[in-house]
Amino acid sequence: MKKTTFKQSLGLLGVAAGVLGLALTAIPQNATAQTKDFGGIELTIATFPSTWEIRFREEIGPAMEKMNVKLKFIGGRSDEFLAKLILARGSPTFDVVEITDHVFPELLEGGFLNKLNHGNIPNIEFLNNAMYNEYKVGYWQTQQAILYNHEKFAELGIPKPTEPEDLLHPKLKGKVIFPSLTGYGAVSVITAIAKKHGGDEENIDPALPILRKFSAQVHSFADFTPMSQAMKNGDIYAAFSSGGSARRLRDAGVPIGIHHLVIDGKQGVPSFGYLGSVKGSKHQEAAEAFINEAIGLEMQEGIFINNGTIPTNSKLQARFAQEVGQEKDPFGTLYRLLAPKTIAGMYYLKFDMIDRRKWGKKLQRVQIGK
Fold first, then answer.
1. What is the pTM for the complete model shown?
2. In angstroms, rounded to a whole number, what is the distance separating the alpha carbons of residues 213 and 242?
3. Cα atoms in the 13 Å half-sphere on the side-chain side of 368
4. Residues ≥6 apart with Cβ < 8 Å to 55
5. Fewer CB atoms inside 10 A, N or C side of the chain?
């Protein structure tokens, strides 16, 4: 990661650079397999566009260059990459793919992923076992929560929200954004509602009546960018998003409060982003070297500081929990839950129980008000 960016970001976080410098020396450096020279190959990465490509280039690019690997990027979403792999018919145009939980079962079922050689990904030792398997390695996470403008709630006499249905308060009509129902950001909210009313990841029918109420009540079904701008403008008062989003909104001057989702009595519902090696690629070992760097110190710091996501690397979780993990809303709730033990004790969504096609049909009808 570029040192100037790191120092500027630390200033924004209110952390003394000298203290962080000492902390850096106390953490083992990346476990790495950088002895390999890959002979100048071009490795193509399918990932989110814009800032994510920047992060990869800045944080991983130098290490891959030492391994004689050139990086190329294709921008998009995980479901778009799945569609491209289906159309490619075994001749993929990329080597490493961004995976979100809700798309992984279809990537696996379609046979689009290589089995990973964990021996080529030594940084895996710093990950919770739930964050990887033989086909994917988690390198970022978010924790879905209820975000709300606490000044507006106080002004309108609305209690602090503790569960999704609290945002159906009549004074909030047209003032709430719900994540796009067909996107991965909505899965944790939908599951939380379903579990409360007797359903689960496999059976979301008990959640549908509540979701229909939201359909009539919310400002829109949208993801982070429109939500963020609407909250800054004061057009909406509450939304479902992550703790990292809450902190960014706070820094932008929004009087933001937060309540982390709770399922089965467990506070915190993480959603993960993974990387996998694409079957048919001629560069699996280089792909594994890239994945190893993605869960190493440089990339994990970069996405935490610049993108607001939470590291999967437990060494950095522990460090950031001490350094910036005490950032709280005005009521004492942590914006981001960073301690490794806390993360390990969260509710992990059971994506193997989710049939995305069945979900999609039901949720599309809800989203259009049927």
1. 0.83
2. 23
3. 6
4. 299, 302, 303, 306, 307
5. C
